[in-house]
Amino acid sequence: MLDCNESDISMPAIARTTPIARDDREPTNPYRVDMDLDDEADELSHLNIPDVVIRRLPIYVRTLHSLLEKEQTSVSSEELARMIDVTAAQIRRDLSYFGKFGKQGKGYDVGYLSDTIERILKLDRTWGMVLCGMGKLGHAIANYRGFQRSSFEITGLFDSDESAVGEVVNELPIRPMRELVDTIREEHIRVGIIATPRVNAQETADMLVEGGVEAILNYAPVILRVPAHVTVREIDPVSALQSMTYYISE
Amino acid sequence: MLDCNESDISMPAIARTTPIARDDREPTNPYRVDMDLDDEADELSHLNIPDVVIRRLPIYVRTLHSLLEKEQTSVSSEELARMIDVTAAQIRRDLSYFGKFGKQGKGYDVGYLSDTIERILKLDRTWGMVLCGMGKLGHAIANYRGFQRSSFEITGLFDSDESAVGEVVNELPIRPMRELVDTIREEHIRVGIIATPRVNAQETADMLVEGGVEAILNYAPVILRVPAHVTVREIDPVSALQSMTYYISE
DNA sequence: ATAGCATTGTGACATTCTTCACAACTCCTG
DNA sequence: CAGGAGTTGTGAAGAATGTCACAATGCTAT
Prior knowledge:
Rossmann fold; 10 strands; DNA-binding; alpha/beta; homodimer; Arc Repressor Mutant, subunit A
């Protein structure tokens, strides 16, 4: 609620009744899941599912991927729990918000579960992102290789400093901020990254929202004010450090 | 619990009885606070205080600093709450875990409250940090200017790649990993940053712990296994993005 | 002084999140 | 094809966190 903007979307609080997946699926058949996830109950579902749960899903996906790398095809909630350091009950409960994906006595099919969670998180596509603020931090983010492998791709770089404009970073030119809103609209961008100085973060967020962005990854140490339909997550190493020193002994 | 290692320190669960600050303090006298915070109840207190609360404190400090910049000397929980986008009751409750810092009818003295929270978080000193893994990410972190202003300073850079060793980044030489443990011991380092590739993160964490580090800022996308007296916080932009796309409409 | 406004600190309550524990089911083995 | 071992999914209980609402108190103005 503090470091994340809970995005308490104001839509009618209709309880979802149709499970996303059913019991009679063939665990490794992606088409089946496809159909299940696209049906009409899906859109309403995220009202009911706690954000804590949603935040854990990427960790599950990541862990399942590491199992796939090791060619392990099946996993129990118990084993997954040990790997992630949570309780098995929590994993089962988390998954149960979305349907039934496991087999009693057997566990979960790694590939099927991983695909399913990715579909829930809408990671079954590539999301273009605009990056605002091309100082040192912006450069580092633009050069970061970890996004492509994860359904994300930076497609535009923006900076308000006209003298930075034109420079090419990781094959993309830096463009002026005044082009930001139109670019977002034209390219249907839904995700923005803020790496501007603190004082410019809010105005940047406003422009992102104006363009139609619905998710903002904020590296600036400020709490952003955005409409309820926009989600914000903070990346704040300093706060993280400052909260850890509390626990240091002596 | 997932992205943070709750650091459920196993010490006797003694309830703290002595408030850290009292009512008869002079709000702007730092010496008073000093004495209060150093007394014997302090060490036991963190058992009882929820980690969620501790994580919010850096935001309070940051916000109070921004008020100080504007020369505002007094603030109510209501006003602070608006700035941070939490409820006023939550701020009052959070602070009440540590004592009574406000004045009825008046609010809080900005400087006093800020100093006090910093003291609680042990930010009234500079923490040396070792940075492990000097790839692109490591370089970016080493060059980051935001730490000094926040009680932190990177004092050692380490990489396992011998060909990187010797290079000077932001006035510090990169040193070989084999010197890590001894350096931590000799320099009494308590905080480590992991910016290694995923596969090396756990072994790096083990070395940090062996040297005596009690707080780890982990940029690698892995859940680290550490003893209970060590706190870990994850910096994971990919997971943050992956959990936000869930909420995107359409 | 005293009244009255503003604001804290906190019991009591409400809500959210986690864990327990077990019926239901699946699979394997003989 | 029955029995046992293993594991899920989930009601119900429990723990943790957040909010309400108000008595207590300090401050200001007259």
